[in-house]
Write a structure and sequence with these properties.
- The complex is a heterodimer of chains A (about 90) and B (about 400).
- Chain A contains three helices and no strands.
- Chain A is mostly helical and about 90 residues long.
- Chain A starts with a helix and ends with a helix.
- The model of chain A has no long low-confidence stretch (mean pLDDT about 80).
- In chain B, helix 3 crosses helix 5.
- Chain B has two domains: about 40 residues; about 350 residues, Glycosyltransferase (Alpha/alpha barrel).
- Chain B is mainly alpha-helical.
- The model of chain B has no long low-confidence stretch (mean pLDDT about 90).
- The chains are: A mainly alpha (about 90), B mainly alpha (about 400).
- At the A-B interface, helix 2 and helix 3 of A face helix 1 and helix 5 of B.
Chain lengths: ~90, ~400
């Protein structure tokens, strides 16, 4: 595949790729949370750093769940619009 | 002509804006719906079955993480020994209540749970645990002389006595009977002192929610030890009705020890807390309080619900009892209220309350253990106790 074609493909699937990136980052985050002791705060919440990491995880989780369908819906509308546009041009 | 073209362009631009507004509304709705679908129904099977795999997995995590006792780091990392001690005893007490609830619903766990609870009680009798109370009162709460006095210590006494009661409900071997009897007597003596029947937690500070735990511990003592504090606890309930905050009819957060007048308004964290402990004291009154709580402080949204920390204002006002407060909605208030929803068999409310907690808590399962990674262990202990709230009885009878 030529670089030009890859570029076109990437541009075409820009939004789904963003979703994929979101989900992959979330999964990596989740794996770190599951298998490391970063989130083992003990009985009492520790220092501001671990609280910060937890807050980032919670925010990222929310954003991943919310933004993946959000971006996909925008992309679907974009695709529909382009299809309609191309039909108009051809007619 | 130019004006007409201008008008046409404006209409087209507005159409574009309308189209974009529509597309973005659909996208936002899809995102919101996805959050609800992702979180699913965390209350599924909780009311019908009583015990689910989720409950058992969370129980495993609590037992494992608390079995070794708290590390010294747990006590010193906050730099406030009183605060750390409160949290530590709260963690072990809530874990004990959770295990007791589970044993009530699944009696084959009672034997194992009683052994674990006995170990936790031993931890809590230790001076390191009672240090928070000792710092405030400048006296050792479990000394014979102090137990025989007629003031204070209800924060520590209430939880320890209820933990002793939990053990006695699950196991009739009489292991802590002497201490249980003494502690119950100490609480009763203090409760009888003031006409309003409430006891100070710290010098000059009287918090009715701590007294609810004390009253519950006396009810449990009646069941487990065969004592008779019924009249005294009934009086306590009647006096509690007199310290309801005007306008809302909900018990105030703090009262004056001499006059019994409310010093603070009612708060979501204490009414939510009471939705777990009050049914152990008086089910009918607990129901009335929770109905009022729902009426005045519950906020329902599509797919979610949460309780306010303050009846009015305090959008981001936090202290160590409130947990996170976001736009007035309280983390502790919502978490504890799960018990109220469970007691009132309201599966819809249970689901709506558990969703935001799951969203903020982030559950992670590892082999046969499950925990909230965004919360310290006290969060897991509280949530497990609230999710399994039920009526208690001596299991050996």
């Amino acid at each position: 595949m030529e670089i030009k074609q890859i570029k076109i493909w990437l541009r075409k699937y820009r939004r789904p790729l963003t979703c994929l990136r979101f989900l992959l980052t979330y999964l990596v985050f989740l794996l770190i949370a599951k298998y490391s002791s970063v989130f083992n705060t003990g009985i009492i919440p520790k220092d501001i750093w671990s609280t910060g990491i937890v807050a980032v995880l919670v925010m990222y989780r929310f954003l991943s769940i919310f933004f993946v369908p959000f971006i996909l819906v925008l992309w679907i509308f974009e695709v529909i619009e382009k299809i309609l546009e191309s039909r108009n041009h051809s007619s | 002509m130019i004006k007409i073209i201008q008008l046409y362009k404006n209409v087209m631009r507005n159409k574009l804006i309308l189209k974009r507004a529509f597309v973005y509304s659909v996208a936002i709705a899809a995102g919101y719906l996805s959050v609800i679908v992702f979180l699913g129904d965390p209350a599924k099977g909780l009311l019908e079955k009583g015990i689910t795999n989720d409950i058992l997995f969370r129980r495993n995590f609590l037992i494992k993480s608390l079995s070794g006792g708290p590390s010294p780091a747990d006590f010193f990392q906050t730099g406030d020994a009183q605060y750390a001690g409160e949290w530590t005893i709260g963690t072990y007490a809530m874990a004990t209540y959770a295990l007791t609830n589970i044993a009530m619903l699944k009696p084959d766990t009672a034997k194992e749970s009683s052994a674990i609870i006995a170990k936790w009680i031993e931890f809590c009798i230790n001076g390191q645990f009672s240090n928070f109370d000792e710092i405030a009162w400048q006296e050792k709460p479990l000394d014979e002389k102090i137990l025989n006095k007629d003031y204070g210590h209800i924060g520590y006494y209430g939880h320890l006595n209820l933990m002793l009661g939990c053990y006695a409900l699950l196991n009739n071997d009489g292991r802590f009977k002497e201490l249980h009897t003494k502690m119950s007597e100490a609480i009763a003596k203090r409760m009888a002192k003031y006409p309003h029947r409430h006891i100070e937690t710290y010098p000059g500070e009287t918090y009715p929610p701590d007294n609810t735990v004390g009253a519950a511990s006396l009810r449990v003592a009646d069941m487990a030890l065969g004592t008779n504090y019924r009249k005294l606890v009934d009086e306590w309930v009647e006096e509690s009705k007199k310290i309801e905050y005007p306008l809302y009819g909900l018990i105030a957060f703090q009262i004056d020890i001499q006059t019994g007048r409310p010093l603070q308004t009612c708060r979501g964290s204490n009414i939510g807390w009471n939705s777990f402990f009050m049914p152990l004291v008086d089910e009918a009154y607990a129901k009335v309080q929770f109905e009022r709580f729902k009426k005045y402080m519950l906020r329902r949204y599509i797919g979610f619900a949460a309780f306010q920390e303050y009846p009015r204002g305090g959008w981001f006002k936090m202290d160590r009892d409130t947990g996170p407060v976001i736009f007035g909605l309280g983390g502790t208030a919502t978490g504890f209220s799960v018990a109220g929803a469970r007691w009132s068999n309201d599966s819809e409310l249970l689901t709506l309350l558990l969703r935001p907690l799951e969203l903020l808590g982030v559950s992670v399962t590892k082999s046969n253990e499950r925990r909230y990674i965004a919360a310290p262990v006290v969060g897991d202990a509280i949530m497990l106790a609230m999710k399994t709230a039920c009526r208690w009885r001596p299991l050996w009878r």
